Amino acid sequence: MTDMQQTLQPIPTAIRLERAPLAPASLPVLLPTLWRDPHSVAPEQLKDIVTRLETACAEYPESADLRTCLGMAHAIGHDAYRSQDAFEQARLLDPQNFWAQLKYSELMYRLRALPLSEQETLRALDLAQDSIQIAMARRQLQEIRRLMRKGTKKPEWTKSLGWPALILIVCTVAASLLRFLR
């Protein structure tokens, strides 16, 4: 066998990492539109997808992949707390799950918890199993570090707001007097 043929051989079961069971093959595809363009999903459709995913998670409680999908659906619906809970459960169920780790770190990045996001993305990078996963984790890490260098701090107030507040009060009193005198 050539080197190329040897690298394309499947990994024997004994060598594979122990992983929690994946989502069952018989489960219908729940999320075809959601991941293509999350902005085009109607709120009713997203609600339906979340409900179906919650049902599937209850039916298959050992599936980290379903919990990861549920976390992604909650994130698209701007429900950060439920999304974080789902990702944390997925990571507990399967600590070796790259997608659960990467999506958790992405949520932290979007919430601008940058130091935590950097740590979690480094963990995801360690879990990456192919060049695509490595590239995705590296790209996210690069963006996190760029934001940390550039800064996401709120601007400091260096000027007094005394004059603008005084002008606002004078204008409000003048408008009140004009209405009262009419």
General description of the model:
The model is unreliable at 1-22 and 24-33 (pLDDT under 50). The chain has helices at 3-7, 32-36, 43-59, 64-76, 80-93, 98-110, 114-127, 131-150, 162-181. The N and C termini lie far apart (98 Å). Helix 4 (64-76) runs antiparallel to helix 5, helix 4 runs parallel beside helix 6 and helix 5 runs antiparallel to helix 6. The chain is elongated. It has 182 residues and is mainly alpha-helical. The protein has one domain: Serine Threonine Protein Phosphatase 5, Tetratricopeptide repeat, CATH 1.25.40.10.
Please outline the helices and strands.
Layout: H1 3-7, H2 32-36, H3 43-59, H4 64-76, H5 80-93, H6 98-110, H7 114-127, H8 131-150, H9 162-181
Total discrete domains: 1
Count, helices? 9
Please tell me how large the radius of gyration is: 25 Å
CATH topology: Serine Threonine Protein Phosphatase 5, Tetratricopeptide repeat
Shape: elongated
CATH class: Mainly Alpha
Portion in strands: under 5%
